[in-house]
Write a structure and sequence with these properties.
single chain; 310 residues; alpha+beta; Arc Repressor Mutant, subunit A; SH3 type barrels; 4 domains; five-stranded antiparallel sheet; 28% strand; globular; WYL domain-containing protein
Length: 310
């Protein structure tokens, strides 16, 4: 049985969208829905499961499929999920996306349920201990303004601490927020207004934020120091599915190869996160082989050599 929190994840939302269609769909139309609402690699497994394994889509005419549901799908929440939601509310990062009143209201709604575990129960041995100060009121306020700028597509006037005693000020166009699990920090990907130079700014070093006018430009893809890491994944012990979930926070693409049960996985990673990515790849053991770039292959070999020498 799939874990309950997958019920409201991306794949379930994609399936819900396909099944909610009131007309027949071709395989191409279903593929477009998957690409629009899911990930580039979602169609590798999702469509065959829909039609051949779960039998949720039945062929009506030649090449046209319809869902088997006779009424609209209504989500439900079980006790385990409510306990999980209450546990997630205790994450200090929740205060960045919800107000104190919203969190308090949800806590009251879930008052009859126990948490699954405390935050202090988990010990992360591969994470730095100097993460962002999520509970600090000033950080929360600045984060909220950055989030507002992203959601409303507004310019941000930022004051940023470059190094001790030196600050940078300017108007930036927000593109995306990223979170580094290894560093326990949020980063803002943005462009400087005027020349559209890409920047990656640590949220903890943002000293002041002011939300400006709506942006009047279409931003290009933020390609600051992106490195393409090409791998082969052997689909043994569900390694492909595990890899797609494990690397979900990276932009990536997956392809079938001519070799049976071997997939090609391309991961796009910022240069500053390469060390974190290498550690994650090593956790898959022989199931993943890195083909390029040579610098990442060399880093993997060096780490393996140090482990063998212990």
């Amino acid at each position: 049985m799939e874990i309950f929190n997958e019920m409201y994840g991306t794949y379930y939302r994609v399936v819900q969208e396909i099944l909610a269609q009131k007309r027949g769909l071709t395989r191409q139309e279903m593929t477009e829905i998957v690409r629009e609402r899911g990930f580039d690699e979602s169609g590798l497994h999702l469509l065959p499961q829909l039609m051949d394994q779960w039998h949720l889509m039945v062929e009506q005419d030649a090449g046209v499929y319809a869902g088997i549901l006779k009424r609209d799908w209504m989500p439900v929440q079980g006790i385990l999920e409510k306990r999980w939601l209450k546990t997630v509310l205790r994450d200090p990062r929740m205060g960045l996306f919800l107000t104190d009143n919203e969190i308090a209201g949800l806590e009251r709604d879930l008052g009859a349920y126990d948490v699954l575990f405390d935050v202090d129960t988990i010990w992360r041995f591969d994470q730095f201990q100097d993460g962002d100060a999520y509970l600090e009121p000033g950080y929360r306020a600045r984060f909220g303004l950055v989030l507002q700028g992203l959601e409303e597509k507004r310019e941000l006037k930022l004051e940023y601490q470059v190094r001790d005693g030196e600050r940078m000020t300017g108007t930036f166009l927000p593109f995306r927020l990223e979170f580094s699990q290894k560093n326990d920090k949020f980063r803002l990907l943005c462009f400087r207004k005027g020349d559209l130079k890409p920047f990656t700014l640590n949220l903890a070093k943002v000293v002041d934020v002011r939300v400006g006018t709506r942006m009047d430009v279409v931003l290009p893809e933020h390609k600051a120091e992106l490195v393409m890491v090409k791998c082969l994944v052997v689909d043994h012990r569900n390694a492909v599915d595990r890899a797609l979930i494990h690397f979900a926070d990276y932009k990536k693409k997956a392809f079938r190869t001519e070799r049976e049960n071997v997939f090609e996985l391309v991961i796009y990673c910022t240069r500053g996160d390469l060390t974190e990515l290498v550690i994650q790849i090593l956790s898959f053991g022989p199931m993943i082989q890195v083909l390029e770039p040579a610098s990442v292959v060399g880093e993997l070999k060096a780490r393996l050599a140090r482990q063998l020498a212990l």
